[in-house]
Automatic annotation (TrEMBL):
Residue span, EngC GTPase domain: 110-257
Lineage: Bacteria, Bacillati, Bacillota, Bacilli, Lactobacillales
Originating organism: Levilactobacillus fujinensis
EC number: 3.6.1.-
Recorded superkingdom: Bacteria
Sites where the protein binds GTP: 149-152, 201-209
EC primary class: hydrolase
Transmembrane segments: none
Keywords, sorted A to Z: Cytoplasm, GTP-binding, Hydrolase, Metal-binding, Nucleotide-binding, Ribosome biogenesis, RNA-binding, rRNA-binding, Zinc
Record flagged with keyword Nuclease: no
Gene transcribed to yield this protein: rsgA
NCBIfam families registered for this protein in UniProt: ribosome small subunit-dependent GTPase A
Protein name: Small ribosomal subunit biogenesis GTPase RsgA
Role this protein plays: One of several proteins that assist in the late maturation steps of the functional core of the 30S ribosomal subunit. Helps release RbfA from mature subunits. May play a role in the assembly of ribosomal proteins into the subunit. Circularly permuted GTPase that catalyzes slow GTP hydrolysis, GTPase activity is stimulated by the 30S ribosomal subunit.
Pfam family, one: RsgA_GTPase
Leader sequence residues: none
């Protein structure tokens, strides 16, 4: 029986592209486990590896196949293994900076239409974390939706929504509870036809539980947040693409305890500040002490929270480092804190003299 790839997000553009390369088979990456993959084509699921030529040509880690990618494959004569020959251009890509010191980015999911940014309404609630996720989501090319989980554990949901009001300008916010079912139906309206959605958020916020609700069965393992500190336990350890019975597909991702922004669209994530900045007297205004600064004027009038501006500056600085090599980042930090390496050495020598006394 042939698989209908329309149910896995196939578009007319991809169909036309595949028709021009009859020697290859179109497939979508549904799972990734280090250097091995699982793909689905019209013939069904197959384990897959990267073909030797493609592996040789790939020089950047973010160019390697990721869950959600559409790829061209060839299949071994015994139909037991697929070789990925080409990764097709991505319509969107959700990426974060690597936690390691390599500086290489990490693809979370590819070709996503809607990103559900999940955060629980308990001690995990953090406005600045939502800002960071939105920065990353807007940069991906997908549409973000903020999902506030465990609403049944929150005594004042409207207050939480008010706290997020400035951060979520132009973004849908859904408060829901997997335990009571409240709000879950609203999520289903975003997953229709051949659309792809992805859930991201910290460990234990309830992503897997919500996905199970969408699937209609307990496919994914779930665990509660620890009661003593509200920190989550990792339940999802790899990325996986799943088809929903009502249409559309969902990509589950491991919880992120450390979120470093690889790229980001501050124009959309901080639309209030960028709009104000366009009204500043000087085009290169740093929004600190310059005369005619519309941002500082808004703060003085109580229209903009100082903490919001601090978050903007912090992310702006982080993004300026994201495209640098490890050495360039180190030099930039030295320049920022000391002015030069020579001045840093003088400072360190001075500290050492004080310690010797």
């Amino acid at each position: 029986m042939k698989i209908d790839l329309n149910q896995y997000g196939l578009t007319d553009q991809l169909k036309r592209f595949a028709a021009g390369v009859p020697d290859f088979t179109l497939a979508r990456v549904t799972e990734q486990h280090r250097e091995t993959y699982q793909v689905i084509s019209v013939t069904g699921f197959l384990p897959a590896e990267i073909a030797g030529k493609l592996r040789h040509d790939l020089t950047v880690t973010t160019d390697f196949p990721a869950v959600g990618d559409w790829v061209l494959i060839t299949v071994a004569p015994d139909h037991q293994l697929a070789l990925i020959q080409q990764v097709l251009p991505r319509q969107s890509v959700l990426e974060r900076a690597a936690v390691s010191k390599t500086g290489a980015g990490q693809i979370i999911a590819a070709n996503v239409d809607t990103i559900f940014i999940c955060m629980s309404l308990n001690a995990n609630f953090n406005v600045h974390r939502v800002e960071r996720y939105l920065t990353m989501a807007w940069d991906s090319g997908a549409v973000p939706v903020v999902v506030l989980t465990k609403a049944d554990l929150c005594t004042d949901v409207p207050a939480k929504l008010e706290a997020l009001a400035d951060v979520t300008l132009g973004v849908d916010v859904v408060a829901c509870s997997a335990r009571t079912g409240a709000g879950v139906a609203s999520l289903k309206t975003y997953v229709t036809g051949n659309r792809t959605v992805s859930f991201i958020g910290s460990s234990g916020v309830g992503k897997s539980t919500l996905i199970n609700d969408l699937l209609g069965s307990d496919v994914l393992i779930t665990k509660e947040i620890r009661a003593d500190d509200d920190k989550g336990r990792h339940t999802t350890t790899s990325r996986e693409l799943l088809r929903l019975p009502t249409g559309g597909v969902v990509i589950d991702t491991p919880g992120m305890r450390e979120l470093q922004v690889q790229g980001g669209d501050l124009t959309k994530a901080f639309a209030d500040i960028t709009t104000l900045a366009s009204q500043c007297k000087f085009r290169n205004c740093t929004h600190q002490t310059e005369p005619g600064c519309a941002v500082q004027a808004a703060i003085a009038m109580g229209k903009l929270d100082t903490r919001r501006l601090e978050s903007y500056r912090k992310l702006q600085l982080e993004l300026s480092y994201s495209d640098m090599s490890a050495r360039e980042r180190e030099n930039a930090k030295i320049q920022r804190f000391f002015g030069s390496k020579k001045e840093m050495k003088r400072t360190m020598d001075h500290v050492q003299k004080i310690r010797r006394r």
